TrEMBL record:
One of its GO terms (biological process) is regulation of immune system process. This is Ceacam3 protein. Residues 618-702 form the Ig-like domain. The gene is Ceacam3. One of its GO terms (molecular function) is protein tyrosine kinase binding. Residues 1-33 form the signal peptide. It comes from the Eukaryota. Belongs to the immunoglobulin superfamily. CEA family.
Amino acid sequence: MGVYSVIPCKGCAPWQGLLLTAFLLTCWDLTTTAQVTIELVPPQVVEGENVLLRIHNLPENLQAFVWHKGVRNMNLKIALYSLAKDRTVMGPLHSGRERLYSNGSLQIHNVTQKDTGFYTFRTINGHVGVVSITTIYLHVYTSLLNCGNSPTSAKPVIEPVPHRITEGSSVLLLVHNLPQNLLAFFWYRGMTVSKKLEIAQHIIATNSTVLGPSHSGREMVYNNGSLLLQNATWKDTGLYTLRTISAELKAETLHVQVEVDASPLTYGCPSTSSKPRIESVPPSITEGASVLLVAHNLPEDLRVLFWYKGVIVSNKFEIARHIIPRNLSLPGPAHSGREMFYSNGSLLLQNVTWKDAGFYTLRTLNVDLKIGLMYVQLLVDTSLSTSRNTLMIEPVPRNAAEGESVLFLVHNLAEDVRTFSWYKGAYAVRFFKMVEYSGATDSVIQGPAHNKRAMVYTNGSLLIKDVTEDDAGLYTLETLTRGLKVEATQVQLQVNTCRLPPTIAKLTIESVPANIVEGENVLLLVHNIPENVRAFSWYKGVSIIDRHEIVWYLVATSRSLLGPAYSGRETVYPNGSLLLQNVTQKDAGFYTLRTSNIHLKTQESRRLIHIYKPVTEPSTKVTDTTVTVQSAVVFTCLSADNGNSIRWIFNNQSLQLTERMKLSPTKCRLRIDPVRREDAGEYQCEVSNPISSKTSLPVNLTVLNE
C-alpha cells in the first residue's frame, strides 16, 4: 500500500484534516494486533479528585495520537499530540483541566459529574493511518458519604492552635471548611466589623493581602483563611473576627477567642522578646499534619537565610536557602518537596512523617558576614505507631526556672543498646562527654564535661538538679547497639532566670465536661467572679444585645429575669455559673457572661462550646482485594459523619506510612503505589471525635507475584 497523504479539508484546521484522513482509513487499515489498553488511576474517582487515564502498550513509530469525548464523534475533541513536532493542539472540549502526556496518558484535574462518559484514544502513523482505537468509560461518583470532600453543609470554624498561650508565644487561628467560592476575606480585632479594627484583607483572585489599620506588624495572613499572631502580649487577649464574602456577595462572620496568659516579662524579668528565636506552631503534631517553624525577631541587616535538618550545619543537610536582596529561595539536598520557605525566615513543613521529627537549624548571614545559629525541636507524636518507635527525648519541664531540676526523659530506647553516652552540646565528641553508661557491666564512667548535679538512669534518661543559666543549650544522647549501630539524638534545655509571677485572678469560664455529647448537660462554671458584683447577665453569642440575652441575675435579691434567648433548659446559679440541659447542635457556639459591680464597672468573659454526636461505624472499600506486585491499590474510608479524625489500621496495628503510601487531605483515602508483598493483610479505618470512635470491618488484601 502506498504512502497516504492528508485529505484536504476546506475551512478546517490542519489537525482536523489529519483526523479526517485517519477516520476514513479506519475501515480498512485498523490493525487487529494492536493491544492498546487504558487504565483508570484511581479506578474509582469522586468529584473534586484527579484521575489519570493511563495508556499501556503504546505502538511505536506513531505520527500522532488524539483524545476525544465519546466513541465516534470527532467534533468532541479534547487534544491532539504530534510526536514529530512534540506539540499539543487543544480541541473544542479542552476545559483547561486536562493534561496530555507524551506517553499517551491523559490526566483530568478536579473532575465533576459532567466528566462522566466514554473517552476514546486514537493512535495514528503516516503509513497505516489509524493504528488503534481504544475506548473506556469514566464514572465520576458523587459521594453522599464524607470522604475528604467537605460537604456543602460543613460550616467554617476557627481553631486556635494552641488553645492557650503565654506572652511572647505565637498562636495560629486555623480556619477549617473555608468556602471555595470566596471573593475575599477580612480579619478584625474584636467582635465588630469596622474598618478601623481591620487587621488585613485578602483578595482571592489576585492572591494579595492588604494590611488594615489594626495590623501591628506581628500578624500574617494565609490564603486558606488562617491568621498567625506572633509574639503575643496580654493586650492581644480577646475576640477576633473573620468575615468572608462569597461570589454571590453573601457575607458571613465567625469569631474566635485568643487567651494570653501573663508571662514573667510583665513582672520585671529580663526581656528576651527581642532576641532571635524559632517557635514550632503547634508545639507538637501528629503524622500527616503541617507545622510552621516561625522565626522571631530576625535582624534587619541579613543577606542570606539557611535552614538545615538537624543541628549540624552541612551542605547535605541543607533544606533551603533564601537570598534576601534577590528575594530568591533555592532548595537544598535535604529538601523533600514538602517544605515552603517564607521571606520572613519561617519554614512550613507539610504532611509531616515520623522521619521529620528532631531538630532544625536556622543559620543567618548578615551584611558583615556574621553568622547566627538558632535551633528548634519538632515533636511528632508516634504513640499510635507500633511499626516504628523513634528515639525521643522529652525535657520535663519544657521551660525550667533557675534552681529547678530537669529530667531529659528518653522514650523508645532500643532494647539491644550496649552503651549510651550524654554530651553537652550538639556534637558527640570526647571533650563534651558528660557520662557513659555500659549495660553489660551496669557501670557509669564520668567524662571531661561531667556535671556533679547530673544523674543518669538505666533507661537512658538524664536528671540535672538545680539548673543554672549556664546549663541552657543543646544536649546529645548517643547510643550504641549490639549490632554496632550508632544513633544520636538531641534535646534543648531552656532555663528561665527569673521567678514566675503570681497568678492573677481573672474572670474565666470552664466547660464541664470539656467535650459535650448531644442530649447531655453542660455546666459553664465561672471562676473568679468579683466579690463586689452587683448583677450579671448571660448572652448567647459574642454580642451583648437584648435579643441575645438568656438571663439577668440580681445578686442582692437573688432575682432572675429571663431574656429573649431563654429556651427553658437553662439554670443560673448565684456564683455566676450557667447550666444547659439536654443540649442540641443549636446550642453550640459562644456564650458571654457580663458582670457589673457596685461601682457599675463591667467585666466580660466568653466561652465557646462544641456539641458532639457519637460517630457511626465506617466502612472500608478497596479497588481490588487481589492485586499483583508493582500495581496500585486504593482504600477508601466511608463515613456518614463529617469533620472526624481518621486513622488507618493494618493487621490490628496502626498503619505506619511509607513513601509508597499517600493519604488524601482528610486521610479518608489511602493509595499504595507500587504494592509490595509485605502490604498483604487486613486493612481497617477508624473514625473518631473527642467523645467516641468506631472501627470498620476488616478488608483483606492479597498480593500476588507478577
